Sequence to fold (320 residues):
Amino acid sequence: MKNDEFIRDIIDNFSAELVTDVLSKNALIPDTVIRYQGELKPFVFLHGDSSEVYSQPEIEFINSIGEIIVYDDFFMNTNRGTVACRVISVRLCAGEDSLMDAIAFEKIIDKATDGFNFFFIAAQEGIRIGCSGVVAAGSNYSISKNLSDDNEFEEYIQYLWYLPNENFIDYYNSLRQIICMEDVKYLSYEEKRMILRGPQYRYLEGLEEIERIYHINMSGEKRRYLAAFCENINEEPYSEVIRQAEEMLFPIVSTKVNTMEMLFDAEEVEKLSQKTEEENEKLVEKQTENEQVPTDQSITKEMLNDPEAVIKLLKKKRGL
Fold:
């Protein structure tokens, strides 16, 4: 299936067969095995983390979501262990704000599951790509701009084809950069040419000539033409659009420490430990035994081999 055919097709005829075909042909899933297919509610409350507690707005949102498709887990390595990864797809019903619904869906799934989630979300106006996030890396989720144009999706696919597939940290950082490259406005070839050339006053003069000869009011077309340049220049960054949408969303907070968070923080602990050890060696060389080594007293090298201690430390740091 060509990219210029599937966007509308997948939105109007959302099914496991169609989604699997699109994802597999574009190398977005390593395997076509479906682990779960059904409503979101059983997935969250029967297959999700039983220790999580959900508020009334969260429950109402969960009940409003229909069929989801969850593909089988695959595993990627880090320096300290492996991360369970999975691809999840959903067709969101028409709502007042599909961006808010997409953010809520990602955060609910991340709350209910452990590991890393890659999202392929269809809505009435287009497709969004998203993924779980790491707070230490900047955000607890990532969500793309709405992809409703063939060229937009093709541009994404070109980047996604070259994601690193051996080390999870490299894979995650690259994927998040692709998803978050939305601060650049997508424009068609003709729109880009128009902006580069600037307003064409011959066109405006032609409109005035039409007014003079045929006595037709062209003021509306003049305003539309000039406004096109202002809109492209003044459009707010997509990151700001996401921030505003999340501010309007009901709170979705997890009480658990995700394995993925642990592995990121474990590598951070390892870096701090190595830095402290290097500083100690320098101090010994200079024979300055009385000088205190600047170090985080809550993090020690011994913790690297004690996962329970790391979990307790992370919970204490996050106030859980």
Q: What stands out?
A: The longest helix spans residues 259-285.
